[in-house]
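Re: beginner question about structure tokens

> Can someone show what the tokenized structure looks like for a real chain? I only ever see the sequence side.

Sure, here's an example I had lying around. Input first:
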Amino acid sequence: MLVIFNPVAGRRRAAALWKVLDLLMENGIKLEVAETQHAGHATELARSAARDGLEMVVAAGGDGTIAEVANGLIGSPTVLGVIPLGTANVLAKEYRLSTSPRGVASALAYKRTQSLWPGVARLGVREHVFVQMVGLGFDGAVVHGLQPLLKRVIGRGAYVWQSLWESVAYGFPGVQLSVDGKAYQASSVVVSKGRLYGGPYMLAPNAASTKPGFQVALFENPGTFAALLAGAALPLGLLPRCPGVRVIAGREVEFAAANGPILTQSDGDRLVGTPQMVVDALSPISLIVG
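And the corresponding structure tokens:
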């Protein structure tokens, strides 16, 4: 078993990681820990492990780290394990993964799996794999403006603070897009593989991350009031029914060149560049769920 960990995550998360690893080693499981050195390194490490025929690669981190590792495993029989160490851990909540050290260690030892079908954001010649969502517009502005130190100190509260700031500071330019060839316009867009957003909160009730396809959330109304209304509806589970929010199904999402640059986030991390298209990965991977 190869465990891939981002050392930038901090001491608290490193301590949580070692609680899991100690339990695994106590039960005689052989493992190796690899620390990432730069963006994309987790993908390189996972791809190399898959080429070497390793049975399991474990992503220790948040959704962004999981996506990097998943990218390296697509097309291989190597299974993906997760030690949830992120701020929101949306994918872990989507698949109801345990977050306790003993529960995580038990799941990795038991090796029961479900399919996870990632998405791919195409940015010119570059492709970016995501496991939960890609957000353009206000959503992207919040993540781009978020200060890492504030995120480490107050966790999900940092997103609330930044959302309040961006509701006033963000300009809400329009986003032109097409979903399976049908044209739409919105102020912000979230292309989601899963049902959840921002942690345990419902965004797309009909999403199925085990299958191809997406749920596309269109935030049609621009401005501060619309952003604050959506933010208030989110923790109440009412976001899909919020006025000005429409969620549609699709297999291929294309963003118009006329949009210009749009701030974008992927799995809660900043994405450099604006996607021209979002499609499914060529094949699913097997995710360990317990």
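Each token stands for a local structural state, so reading them left to right follows the chain. The longest helix spans residues 11-26.
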